[in-house]
Amino acid sequence: MQENILEVRDLNISFSNYGKTSKVLRNVNLNVLRGERVSLIGQSGSGKTVTMRTIIGTLPTPPAIIESGEILYERKNLLALNRIERNKIKGSGISIILQDPLLSFNPVLTILRQMEDIIKYSDVRRGLSRGHKERKELICETLAKVQLFDNERILDSYPIMLSGGMRQRVLIGMALLNQPKLLIADEPGTALDVTTQKEILDLLNMLVANEGLSLLFITHNLGVVREMADRIYVMQSGKIVETNHRENIFNTPQDPYTISLMESVPPLYGKKVIDVKNSNPIPDEMIKISNLTKSFPVRTGFLNRITSENHAVKSINLSINDGDIFGIAGESGSGKTTIAKILVGLHQPSAGQIRINKSNLEQLVELKDYRKLIQIVYQNPGSSLNRKRTIAQILSVPLKFSDYTDKMIKDRTNELLNMVDLPISYSSMYPHELSGGQKQRVAIARALSLKPKIIVLDEPTSALDVLVQGTVIDLLQRLKKELGLTYIFISHDLSLMRNFCNKIAIMFKGEICESGETKDIFSNPKHLYTKALISSIPVISDLEESLKPKVTDEERSMVLQNTRKI
Amino acid sequence: MTQPSGQELNSERDLGQQRSLTSGQMAWFRFRSNPSSIIGAFIVLSVIFLAIFAPLIAPSPQSAGSFVDFINRHSPPSKDFWFGTDNVGRDIFSRVIFGYRVSLGLVIGVLGFAVPFGVFLGLLAGYFGNWTEFVIMRFTDIMLAIPPLAMALAITAVLSPNLINAMIAITMLWWTWHTRLIYRIVKAQMNEDYVEAAKVSGASHFHIMFRELLPNCVSAISVKISLDAGFVILFGAALSFLGLGVQPPTPDLGTMVSTGSEYLPEYWWEALMPGLAILYAILGFNLLGDGLRDMMDVEV
């Protein structure tokens, strides 16, 4: 039996807010062995982050109240230690990698300064005194560990000057500076693109193996867990509902919650995959995009003159049929959203032609009826619904500007709430009183209000938990069937697109590198980038893993190199 | 992919339990748990109460006018005259109460014009951007660069020194702060998707500015107003002190401090008591404003 490096015993935590106390953690027990990779998985609000913050000692008390429990790190109870002893462990024994690589840095200090500070403070705690030279040597060694070799440039950069993947690497490097024994990672890479995420996860795995670290990995993504954990804890509303070795969790999950989590992950390959077909036997062409280019002027200098142009999308050709669910996939910055904004008339194309329903877009945009043809659902309903307006007011906006009388508006609003399975009583509520999934339903209802033929879905589920994501997708499928809609589905989640779209276009640096029937693209990707993209997606079964296209590391870095911001 | 539909409902119900408080209740909780904001609210309400019912509360309502009582002139604070009397024997306490009427009138007059005007310009500048923004915001900057007292002196010198002109002078300077505040908020709100969603819905500019953006500015405006009220009273008092505001015999706190200061230090209450009255009102408005700011969680 190996020795525990970390053990959490019967941890109970409540939060007291506005005079009410609610229990956040109930009897949480977990342990990490030396050199082991343990994963804590759960949906948002399940208590993962509270657990993590209690372990590293940054839980704000109040409002949090630690009711009972022990956290043993190398047999010392962290919760019973005084502040000075506690700080020693904070800086050296346990290190943490946070989710958002940009938010974790101080934006006005260089990387070198921030890394040096970490060493300085730990020296103070440990009574060492290392000079600038020694510190820099240590930093360079650490950067080499996280496979960053362009030291001089990186160390003199400010966080904003580095790409997301580089920032995440530097962040991992920072966590390694004080030779920790336990690494806690809170959803690293979640904010990054899949291809970059894949590299970060590979790096973490390599470090854990080489340095003999223990890893506590906190995430909501089952696919990632499969690559990152020896043992898994499943957490639901503050309780650990299941714990087991990886194989057992994935092959024979016991708890109904774990099972529903497994089922909610859209499969990439295998028998469970749904092949979507256009329901129209002989579909008409709905949207024809030819040679579309959009560039944004880059203004520099004192006089704000246009010095160059930045191409967001370049020579796009697409044809979307009536009744299609057309997926546009790509990583951040690939130009997906630009296309969406051009289609709904928020941006003017720089060149090229778009025909919708056999009329030119430029003429259509001028017409009031354009709003009745095409509508959009945004990614984050928290931002796309005005916090200060009731659901009824939000839904009435498109109707008010389209010759509906007050009586008709009220009827239509109720009808819309019905369509998206929300009770009519919600019409007097404000968005913050609704959950994320319900808010997105309201946003969908608003897009439907003028009975459009086409709806642009700009990552409509990526701000939601997997379980809720499934219900929203089901709703979209039902609405499409009932109302005969055409969807343009913009997303970076390829496994979801595999099961939801009948056609798909892969975008890469503002251009479409491959497009066609979803089934063909996944079974036989032609472009190297498509292969790299699909092979980076974390999956939840060995079968899917074996069916993914094979890409060597050299090929992958060759394709991706071009995208890196240097 | 198909989910039992109860799944979402279950998880959503869990969330619902945590969110059972409405935003109003949460705001009230924040307000209540801050003792200084309760004190501020109490002071402000008492000032408003005194101003409204001045003729009923004042022990000697005739003191508000050009009443003369030479027997009691310069009498120190006592049972009969709580704040003492002034150089012609008028009861200072009664004059302070009537002085609050003038001060609150000034606040309402100034903010009643400055706030809507400033907010409107801020909305225009933030929403339309480009040259609209340039023209409005640079004009605002110019107005901000003028020293307020010099501006007020100029205006009251050209027109004539009285309450209305003092009000005009203060108003002309005051709107700029509201323009800047609203401009900043609207600029930040323009990045939110709901503005774009309204555009895609076919909403008019008027709708987006006044129905979508303005409600998101309301909490900041109300905090700003309550903080402003104190400063307007102070500025009005300063003008009156210099003889540019309200003219005698109308009781005004600033004028009273000014006349009273001639009799310092023997008859100290004649300047001190109106001064304390100014302090009391401003303290109240500032505490209330800070409380509101914490409650609504806005930056002003």
Could you give a quick summary of the protein structure above?
The complex is a heterodimer of chains A (566) and B (300). Chain A is of the alpha/beta class and 566 residues long.
Describe the structure.
Chain A is α/β, with parallel strands linked by helices. Chain A folds into 2 domains: 261 residues, Rossmann fold, CATH 3.40.50.300; 253 residues, Rossmann fold (3-Layer(aba) Sandwich). Helices cover 39% and strands 26% of the residues of chain A. Chain A contains 22 helices and 20 strands. In chain A, strands 6-7-8-3-9-10 form a 6-stranded mixed β-sheet, sandwiched between helices. A 6-stranded mixed β-sheet of chain A has the order 16-17-18-13-19-20, with helices on both faces. A 4-stranded antiparallel β-sheet of chain A has the order 2-1-4-5, with helices on one face. In chain A, helix 2 packs across helix 3 and helix 4 packs across helix 6. The mean pLDDT of chain A is 84. Chain B has a single domain, classed as Orthogonal Bundle (MetI-like fold). The longest helix of chain B is centred in the middle third of the chain and has 37 residues. The N terminus of chain B is likely disordered. With 300 residues, chain B is mainly alpha-helical. Helix content of chain B is 71%, strand content 0%. In chain B, helix 2 runs antiparallel to helix 13. Chains A and B meet through helix 10, helix 14, helix 16 and helix 17 of A and helix 1, helix 2, helix 9 and helix 10 of B.
